[in-house]
Amino acid sequence: MMAGQCRLRQSALPASLAAWLLACTPGHAHGLAGGSPLDELAAGFGAPLDVAAALLLIAAAGICAALWDSNRFTRLGWGLLAGTAAGPLMAWLLARSGIAIPHWPALALGIALALMTALARRWSAALMRSLLAAAGCLAVIATLLDHAVGDLTFFTGAGLVLGVVFFTAASAAAFSLPQMLLPPGIARLGLRIVASWTGAIAILLLAFTLRGAVG
Amino acid sequence: MKKTLSLSILLVICAATPGLAHTGLGPEGGFTSGFFHPIFGWDHVIAMIAVGLWGAFLGAPAIWVLPVVFPLVMAFGGALGVMGVPVPAVETGIALSGVILGLAVAFAVRAPLWIAGILVAVFAVFHGHAHGTELPEAANPFAYAAGFVIATGLLHLAGIGFGLLVRAPGGQWLVRAGGGVIACIGAAFLFGYA
């Protein structure tokens, strides 16, 4: 009896924590407006994860960079950073001139990157840098379209740029890991298959978008 | 102990999310719906497994080319379906895919890569179109598409896994028999017995 109570007491705290973790609500951190500068930075940083088109583009760019060269994908970083940094300005200029940019350019580039990865050819560094620059820029624009460019402050913009660069680099790093841990042939085969899945999801989402069901 | 138990209950009550079971969005909503869409149709399942089987049977590079081609072209077919572009004889094409791909495995057909790729791509359009047409309005298109594509890919991987038995002694006959079974099921769909 006593032993049973003791076991119950010992398991009650982890159970409480597990119950709390399971029951807690998802964070709604992506209202970009308002709050302290730190809040705005954090909101901008997490915002790309909330937009399917941006997320797919980031994933496709990450796989493409990882498969391009798992040891040297950091060489592409400057292109990604430059393109991403231009994103908020581009979005602001487009919104100011009244040009509505839908999600499909981000999805189309995601499909192109997925196809390039699936084909697995050795692309030049200059082409890869340009594509990653475009990916960063379009990921920012797609994200801002879902959160209204009017919400954009310096800190949300900075957070957004950091977020897109960070998640793209993280995606590339994550997809480089299998190439270090598994036999190279199997890892590259797996990455091509995953890239084709990303491209297929983007194609379907593009169809829904063009049909007007999304975005 | 009572205190800890009360604390647990209080934490759960405070942190619990609202129930999302009755959103009014219907069953054709998100990831689960997309995931089970290919899995619950035997005509789709056999074809997708056959693609993996044939890829494994043909060896590199077909082992990765076919499972890469199929989801991409299937998504293209799905896009046609979602956008309402008609494709003729979809059901026949789906049933025929099981028959042809099953026979290719059963008779150990070593087709050139480009022929295998084109064949798989043509059949993928039918499969994708059928799914796309059946789901004109997805409540969460991203989750639906992700579930749909991942399930398809996993079926290919299941086929590849089974197909790798060709490397084992006697495994080739087992895999070829599997192809024969797939062809028979496909024929049952083709001639209206299933």
Automatic annotation (TrEMBL), chain A:
<keyword id="KW-0812">Transmembrane</keyword>
<feature type="signal peptide">
    <location>
        <begin position="1"/>
        <end position="29"/>
    </location>
</feature>
<feature type="transmembrane region" description="Helical">
    <location>
        <begin position="131"/>
        <end position="149"/>
    </location>
</feature>
<feature type="transmembrane region" description="Helical">
    <location>
        <begin position="45"/>
        <end position="68"/>
    </location>
</feature>
<feature type="transmembrane region" description="Helical">
    <location>
        <begin position="101"/>
        <end position="119"/>
    </location>
</feature>
<feature type="transmembrane region" description="Helical">
    <location>
        <begin position="155"/>
        <end position="177"/>
    </location>
</feature>
<keyword id="KW-0472">Membrane</keyword>
<protein>
    <recommendedName>
        <fullName>HupE/UreJ protein</fullName>
    </recommendedName>
</protein>
<feature type="transmembrane region" description="Helical">
    <location>
        <begin position="75"/>
        <end position="95"/>
    </location>
</feature>
<keyword id="KW-0732">Signal</keyword>
<feature type="transmembrane region" description="Helical">
    <location>
        <begin position="189"/>
        <end position="210"/>
    </location>
</feature>
<keyword id="KW-1133">Transmembrane helix</keyword>
From TrEMBL, chain B:
<feature type="transmembrane region" description="Helical">
    <location>
        <begin position="39"/>
        <end position="57"/>
    </location>
</feature>
<protein>
    <submittedName>
        <fullName>Urease accessory protein</fullName>
    </submittedName>
</protein>
<keyword id="KW-0472">Membrane</keyword>
<keyword id="KW-1133">Transmembrane helix</keyword>
<feature type="signal peptide">
    <location>
        <begin position="1"/>
        <end position="21"/>
    </location>
</feature>
<feature type="transmembrane region" description="Helical">
    <location>
        <begin position="142"/>
        <end position="166"/>
    </location>
</feature>
<keyword id="KW-0732">Signal</keyword>
<feature type="transmembrane region" description="Helical">
    <location>
        <begin position="113"/>
        <end position="130"/>
    </location>
</feature>
<dbReference type="InterPro" id="IPR007038">
    <property type="entry name" value="HupE_UreJ"/>
</dbReference>
<feature type="transmembrane region" description="Helical">
    <location>
        <begin position="173"/>
        <end position="193"/>
    </location>
</feature>
<keyword id="KW-0812">Transmembrane</keyword>
<dbReference type="Pfam" id="PF04955">
    <property type="entry name" value="HupE_UreJ"/>
</dbReference>
<feature type="transmembrane region" description="Helical">
    <location>
        <begin position="89"/>
        <end position="108"/>
    </location>
</feature>
<feature type="transmembrane region" description="Helical">
    <location>
        <begin position="64"/>
        <end position="83"/>
    </location>
</feature>
